[in-house]
Amino acid sequence: MIQSVAFIGLGAMGYRMAAHLPQHFDTVYVWNRNFEKAQQHATEFGTLAIELQNAVQADIIFSCLPTSQQVDEILAQVQLKSGSIWVDCTSGVPESARAQSEQLLQQGVRFLDAPVSGQTIGAENATLTFMVGGNTEAFAQALPIMQTMGKIIKHVGESGTGFAVKAVNNMMMAVHLCAAAEGFTTLKAHGVHLQEALDCINASSGKSGVTETVLPQRVFNRSFPLTFALPLLAKDTGIAVDLVREARISAPVIGLTQNLIQVANDLAEPNSDFSTAIKMYESWSKITLE
Amino acid sequence: MIQSVAFIGLGAMGYRMAAHLPQHFDTVYVWNRNFEKAQQHATEFGTLAIELQNAVQADIIFSCLPTSQQVDEILAQVQLKSGSIWVDCTSGVPESARAQSEQLLQQGVRFLDAPVSGQTIGAENATLTFMVGGNTEAFAQALPIMQTMGKIIKHVGESGTGFAVKAVNNMMMAVHLCAAAEGFTTLKAHGVHLQEALDCINASSGKSGVTETVLPQRVFNRSFPLTFALPLLAKDTGIAVDLVREARISAPVIGLTQNLIQVANDLAEPNSDFSTAIKMYESWSKITLE
Amino acid sequence: MIQSVAFIGLGAMGYRMAAHLPQHFDTVYVWNRNFEKAQQHATEFGTLAIELQNAVQADIIFSCLPTSQQVDEILAQVQLKSGSIWVDCTSGVPESARAQSEQLLQQGVRFLDAPVSGQTIGAENATLTFMVGGNTEAFAQALPIMQTMGKIIKHVGESGTGFAVKAVNNMMMAVHLCAAAEGFTTLKAHGVHLQEALDCINASSGKSGVTETVLPQRVFNRSFPLTFALPLLAKDTGIAVDLVREARISAPVIGLTQNLIQVANDLAEPNSDFSTAIKMYESWSKITLE
Amino acid sequence: MIQSVAFIGLGAMGYRMAAHLPQHFDTVYVWNRNFEKAQQHATEFGTLAIELQNAVQADIIFSCLPTSQQVDEILAQVQLKSGSIWVDCTSGVPESARAQSEQLLQQGVRFLDAPVSGQTIGAENATLTFMVGGNTEAFAQALPIMQTMGKIIKHVGESGTGFAVKAVNNMMMAVHLCAAAEGFTTLKAHGVHLQEALDCINASSGKSGVTETVLPQRVFNRSFPLTFALPLLAKDTGIAVDLVREARISAPVIGLTQNLIQVANDLAEPNSDFSTAIKMYESWSKITLE
């Protein structure tokens, strides 16, 4: 029986995710490197802001950090309670998940790699998607808590596979982004009305998440709001290429896209949204997608 | 005032498209190279199966043929009525549209390139998408007839742009297909449960028309039903690359995808559905996506 | 028996090529759009600078112009003598060669597409390579004159194949250039001494014309002398991709390289040597190859 | 003063390389996993075939093994003499070199990664190229011994850089191989005489080691002799891509080529020479390069 839940890392996603927990559980610990944010969360949502070492004594610990490295740093500092479950919602590295899983198992703790998608709006509305790798029994035990924050929650395989699915998802999005940039600059060069063309494609076989939301909401209106930073997409496409290499798969389109996102990231201004990768193509063709 | 409409080419799409016309117009001529099919259409839907030269005397003539070449062959045989409008629903070549448009204008006839998407089910339910290039006034005149067969009908620019949008749509679908093949073989190599991964991705940023319909309905169930032939996709990706070349756009992902679809087509059995391009990747990795 | 030879187009190559002819033939006509250059040639080498219409009355006419378009413009202005042979040393378009060949044949004139390689130094020393397409008999007749300017002179096939070989040669060079840029920026990022690495590679299986001459003579010394303009390389790689498309060959590396050279050309300053394509890679990696 | 030299690994390369040592040094130990080969070498060249543990007591130890893994296995078995130098001529992994270098340094032994090029003929004639990474002083001490086996011997940087240069060399060769396959199938599809085209290109800017030796000696004559196995080239291109990834370089042509060589290797028969990668292209285009 779960008595206590902790949430480590209260960034844009974690802050909103942890907000749902007090409605379902009596004891919810929160911790954040900048501790004021944890205190603010406690005030706002009735969670308990406590020291890291105490927070991780919960039955189930969630973490949501920028990269697997920060998770490693946290894990190196703490002593965990045998029997607990660590659910890492970071968009992490599959290999790290396998190492972390083995390391925690020696302390009697099970580790699930459970990255999420759905952005801050999904975190706010508890409609996130969880793609979860790791022990099946631990997944079953953690499922009710994940259900308070998400809608589609899938066990996709053994340790590391959750991170793998997330990395491949983001890689596929990156491919679709490049395809859209190339396709729409070509159309505009031929005098096509972009909005009308987009309406047609979104009702046809060529549609994607990118054509349905990224182009109309971020690119055509030239807003490029920073919600998912380009360097993080570059990191994720790198993880995807490492998965390809490790499995000795031939994936030329993925390989090329990783290189293109790398170039876009090398050339981008700091704090650029992933959608600014489009601007690399615009600088090549001198065509603006608006 | 439109008195008569004609439909030239009663293939899988045209047969169903023309079926809606008699509900809205008194005089609907149909013609097909294999004329028995035209006679069958007349019996079934109350259209008039007449000789090509007479059919094209309608106020508005629709055509739906395999490639622009067949349209050229028809146009070479007939004498048109000044003031009429020719609406070509073929997935044709933009350059041909421009040539055909100029040629027909000399006979006082306006030409619209108006390819459709939505497959046979969309043709049957009159929910097709029309992407239309050509004269704006002619578009306005032809719009009511297109509305009897489609739902989203957009004027995307001058002559040839309708075909351009269709080619780019299909090219983007081809890119998404390659991305899905590469991503999912990689995931399976890492022991990921494919159906669960697909459920996650279809609720995330990496989704596309391919992940939403092609993978579950054609690939994972190993049905690969022939509804859109791989050689036609190869043709369309070739048209898209020609558009890129003509506009001197840099489009590396599109260029690579055209080459990959070409290889898939070179290696495929005759009468293969476009979705069998996945099998090329499967033969490389010895991994089956099921 | 050849009585007279003409040379049309006295650019950096043509001026030096035509200089060898008076040693072997009594009557050598020269013509150039900027006619002063023709007069200067006459003074310097004993050729005869005459009007275009008279020059092309020679038994064998050579031309060496920027692109096939200039050749077309010249051909449109002149009336040729039946029985003469036109040898075009332009790096031209195969399709143009076939059209020009047919057009001249109607005047009883045979056309050879005979592009050259070897740069200005080869033109000066009469050590050029001629790759020649067209009628075999015409080739045999023109061979002695080509031998006064070149060393390796090969009949590579029918009309257009000379241009095809030149375009593919330049495309292969472009691929090698990209490979060198990518390989050497990677090595420098790993702290490798570039000159020593180049010495090793030039004695190993990875060597190419680019590693043997372009890197040491143009890049590592940062001279980038303008001898072959980047827009011309972009044009040639485009011709190569058109050959690939026409033959329905799958050539992913060629396709990608054409796109990269296009980007490099879009971003380059005017009057850039082809070797400045390297600078595109340098701007991406912030690594300078010196 | 060097008193003794050892050579570990008497494969096609090592056997010939070690043969030169007795002419210059009194004490030359040889060892090979299949020990009979060591004994045969001793008989043939006057070396001393002794047990591994004794052989590695030499002042300078050379190794030449299939991959870095075999070197690791050997190193795990032996105790080395402080002050000695280990020169590894394997085409190894840069990261392994750095680890091996650190590991041996703790035993007072310096490690040089010193892969060679020049094939068996170069080993036989002592005309190999050595690309060497590691400590400069150790390099200076080992140089005289390397000079008995090679001609061009370069210190290219710190530990691991020798392997890096070799991997990049082989990757560049792989790129040139793909470019040649694509270029020449395209030319043949256009009816070009291949041998004449090759003669022209080998006298022009598009030449490479591949066009100068691989095409004429292995491909056009359809011999494809097994001297460098395709799986080893696949391994080396993988090492090169890992170098690219590690340095966060954008290298699209290298990335694509690694994928293509992977496909070629996945589809090839066992014991195929690297040059059979050409056959992948031939199977796509149904064109044979002969």
TrEMBL record, chains A, B, C, D:
Pfam families: NAD_binding_11, NAD_binding_2. GO terms for molecular function: NAD binding; NADP binding; oxidoreductase activity. Residues 5-157 form the 6-phosphogluconate dehydrogenase NADP-binding domain. The active site is at K166. Keywords: NAD, Oxidoreductase. The keyword NAD applies. Residues 160-281 form the 3-hydroxyisobutyrate dehydrogenase-like NAD-binding domain. InterPro entries: 3-OH-isobutyrate_DH-rel_CS, 6-PGluconate_DH-like_C_sf, 6PGD_dom2, 6PGDH_NADP-bd, HIBADH-like_NADP-bd, HIBADH-related, NAD(P)-bd_dom_sf. One of its GO terms (biological process) is organic acid catabolic process. Belongs to the HIBADH-related family. This is 3-hydroxyisobutyrate dehydrogenase. It comes from Acinetobacter silvestris.
